[in-house]
Design goal:
binds fe (ii) ion; 345 residues; alpha/beta; six-stranded mixed sheet
Length: 345
């Protein structure tokens, strides 16, 4: 496995780049906007293909690199389903998998620091975001933080992992880089409590100043979404309502770009074909299934995904490869559901 811990000294943030092999797919956890060029350079040097950029939660102390990485690499942006960030391409819920080629991380909902905090577990390590820090815990006094939830996330979920599990947090302010679950159980001063109530009293009396960047970072991180308006302005979008009216037309091929677990959870549009976003360029290239479908049958490709972000990027890619009739459903399956479009399960 390729594993890199990257540091932003301004916000003391750790970001993590993971891949199963040189030349393979990569994902990055908690990227920082100012460091995006550095990540891209490293990704090039290691000959990796960035396919997913993930935030463990809505950060208050730095601006996320998700949007910039998406714009530069067309990667899928990922957060938990509870997030208030306007559009991320993919939302995970508790128990779902975060997957790239050769690597699977379990997404675990660990609220408390914020109400959208997730941890990501691998067999030997856990990425804890700001839920569990090295000899500390994430503050719970803003962004719908809740010390009781944090207690349950830490004691009920994270500390149940084997003692040898490596702990990689989203921040460290003292220069520590890694710990273990066993070490934190024994030496983390915030965890030496006898009850949830004792933890709550401790957390409610920290009296911390707000992060310097908070007034800038939170609003910026809420609006990380791709501007689907530009795609609409070019006439490449159908609203969910227009797509519902077009359902069943023989000259339209509906293409579902989502992953299998998203299809199972949210349902699919009846009659649609599955062509995952990660294989898009291959499918659109000469001889690929989407290219063949568009060119040999002259069907119009109508892409959709969860929120319209992957499908907007797909329309652009299709146009770039000469498939000018390609369109997408603005707002994705989310908008489709709200417009009462039919779903198959
Ligand atoms: Fe945080």
């Amino acid at each position: 496995m390729i594993f890199r811990q990257l540091f932003d000294s301004v916000s003391s943030t750790y970001s993590y780049l993971l891949a199963s092999r040189p030349g393979g797919e990569a994902l990055i956890i908690d990227p920082v906007l100012e460091k995006v060029e550095r990540y891209l350079q490293l990704i090039r040097e290691l000959n990796l293909k960035l396919v997913k950029a993930v935030d463990t939660h809505l950060h208050a102390d730095h601006i996320t690199g998700l949007g910039a990485l998406r714009d530069k690499t067309h990667c899928v942006t990922v957060m938990g389903e509870q997030t208030k960030a306007d559009v991320v391409s993919m939302r995970l819920s508790d128990g779902e998998k975060l997957m790239i080629e050769g690597l699977t991380l379990d997404a675990v909902y660990t609220p408390g620091h914020t109400d959208d905090s997730y941890s990501f577990i691998m067999p030997d390590r856990v990425f804890t975001g700001d839920t569990l820090l090295i000899r500390g815990t994430g503050r719970t006094d803003f962004q719908n933080g809740d010390p009781r939830q944090e207690y349950e996330s830490i004691f009920g979920r994270l500390l149940k992992l084997p003692d040898s599990t490596l702990v990689f947090p989203a921040h460290d302010y003292k220069g520590d880089t890694v710990s273990t679950i066993g070490e934190e159980k024994a030496f983390n001063p915030r965890l030496q409590v006898k009850s949830a109530d004792e933890f709550i009293v401790l957390m409610n009396n920290l009296k911390l100043p707000n992060p310097k960047m908070m007034d800038v970072a939170v609003p910026a991180n809420i609006h990380v979404g791709l501007h689907q308006e530009e795609i609409a302005r070019r006439g490449w979008s159908l609203t969910a309502m227009e797509a519902i009216c077009a359902l069943g037309r023989p000259d339209i091929a509906l293409i579902d770009l989502r992953e299998q677990q998203e299809r199972e959870r949210h349902g699919t549009i009846p009659g649609s074909l599955h062509a995952p976003y990660t294989a898009l360029l291959e499918n659109l290239s000469e001889g690929g299934i989407l290219s063949a479908l568009a060119k040999s049958t002259s069907k119009q490709l109508l892409f959709y995904c969860a929120f319209g972000e992957r499908s907007a990027m797909a329309v652009q890619a299709a146009q770039d490869s000469g498939i000018f009739s390609a369109r997408h459903i603005e707002g994705g399956i989310d908008a489709w559901k709200k417009a009462s479009g039919p779903l198959a399960h």
